[in-house]
Design a protein that fits this description.
Layout lengths: L4 E5 L4 H14 L2 E8 L9 H8 L3 E6 L1 H15 L10 H19 L4 E3 L8 H12 L4 E3 L10 H10 L13 E5 L2 E5 L29 E8 L2 E5 L2 E2 L2 H14 L4 E7 L5 E7 L1 H17 L2 H19 L6 H14 L4 E8 L2 E8 L7 H4 L9 H11 L1 H14 L1
Parallel strand pairs: 1-2, 1-4, 2-3, 4-5
Antiparallel strand pairs: 6-7, 7-12, 8-9, 8-13, 9-10, 11-12, 13-14
Bound molecules: arginine (ARG).
Length: about 400
């Protein structure tokens, strides 16, 4: 009799721990637990031990950090992808990569099913399952949280105790937190009332702007074709660059975001984000584009940024649409090379300067001094033709009135 074999996206938290045992019993299945490292700091100790003690027959811990930076974060940064103009999409960008890693292990291990621990009212179930459908449509998908009998955390803990499932003894935070190097997402508890200001204990890494240093930090960020490559003149690997900017930004209270957002499943939810590096890099990248992109490209790209952000948020990363948008974005980034100097001060990021070998800013054209080379006479004829249509319209309107 062939036993089912299920690959589970495992985090080490209560839900996915209970899931291992629950699925193993329900399907009489062998369990393959898979955890991806996307740069989260918490809950990554003793995972293998925990997974095996809980009933998994194997455990894989995959370091996905570099792939996350190079193939997910940088494309999103180059695209200018901020969901509803604010959220840099840390959680949303991590899901397709975790889904891909789970599929890879699942296929290698001849699994027949894939399982995730997302709830039935969130975006993440959509992202996982749509990614599974694109990558391995023949595998069955299980979402135990949508169907199991537990209706509270306490019920899950009781089940865990009864079945000797190791659950961490640390006090559960009143918030639901998802973390990776591109940012931290925080919801639930008092945050559910959008009128409640986020309490200090909701924030995991950032200093409050009030307590941030009196002295600002000045950071020079260098970009090559849209990708940040150096800080203060020091070349850095993408992962190190993001890590360093997260540290400096967090110390200055930068990157706290508070958003009531439109979920894929039709509800509005209120979430708090901490994303220091993402906030600084999106800001600097856009400022460099203001300098280097031709006017119509710069203005048109806004639409692409929004479409790209929606695509990431809505879970259609593995799609021909993303490839098509990437084509546009790549073409725009060829000249997004240069340096942006920013100031971080008590929660804010501001611009001190920008320079680029591809700068389209021409001081001789812009200046109001003697050095001016702009052809003022040409403006006259230009305006006559440019305004001709409206002049005609106005005359016709006046004639018909009389
Ligand atoms: N609202 C964000 C998104 O859909 C984050 C979801 C996960 N949030 C959390 N606190 N666990 O991408």
């Amino acid at each position: 009799m062939s036993k089912e074999k299920i690959a589970i996206a495992y985090s080490g938290g209560l839900d996915t721990s209970v899931m291992i045992k629950w699925l193993k019993d329900k399907y009489d299945a062998e369990i393959v637990a898979v955890t991806g490292n996307l740069g989260q700091q918490k809950e990554i100790e003793n995972l293998e031990e925990k997974a095996l003690a809980t009933g998994a027959s194997s455990f894989s811990f995959l370091d996905l950090r570099h792939e996350f930076v190079d193939s997910y974060i940088w494309p999103a940064l180059k695209a200018g992808a901020l969901y509803e103009d604010i959220y840099p999409l840390a959680t949303a960008l991590g899901r397709p990569l975790l889904a891909k890693a789970l599929v890879d292990v699942g296929l290698e291990e001849n699994c027949t099913m894939l399982a995730h621990g997302c709830t039935g009212k969130g975006n993440d179930q959509v992202r996982f399952e749509v990614a599974f459908a694109s990558l391995a449509p023949h595998l069955a998908v299980l979402a135990p949280l949508r169907e199991w009998e537990f209706t509270s955390r306490e019920a899950e803990i009781a089940y865990a105790l009864e079945h000797d499932i190791p659950v961490s003894a640390t006090k559960k935070s009143p918030y639901s937190i998802d973390e990776n190097i591109w940012g931290i997402s925080i919801e639930c508890g008092v945050l559910e009332d959008p009128m409640n200001p986020a309490p200090e204990d909701a924030f995991q890494i950032t200093t409050s702007p009030e307590k941030a240093p009196e002295k600002a930090a000045v950071v020079d960020i260098e970009f090559e074709q849209g990708i940040p490559v150096a800080l203060d003149g020091k070349k850095l690997d993408g992962l190190d660059l993001i890590t360093e900017l997260n540290t400096i930004g967090a110390a200055h209270g930068v990157g706290r975001l508070d958003l009531v957002e439109n979920r894929v499943v039709g509800i509005k939810s209120r979430e708090i984000y901490e994303a220091p590096a993402a906030t600084i890099l999106h800001f600097a990248h856009r400022e460099l584009e203001r300098l280097t992109l031709e006017k119509s490209v710069f203005q048109y790209k806004k639409n692409i940024s929004q479409d790209y952000a929606n695509l990431i948020y809505n879970g259609t990363w593995f799609s021909p649409m993303r490839e098509a948008l990437d084509g546009f974005v790549e073409a725009t980034q060829k000249t997004v090379t240069g340096l942006v100097r920013v100031k971080l001060y008590k929660g804010s990021v501001s611009l001190l300067g920008r320079t680029s070998p591809w700068s389209l800013y021409n001081e001789e054209l812009a200046t109001y001094t003697e050095a001016d080379t702009f052809n003022h006479k040409a403006a006259e004829g230009f305006i006559q033709l440019y305004g001709l249509g409206l002049k005609t319209w106005s005359e016709v309107k006046a004639n018909n009135r009389s």
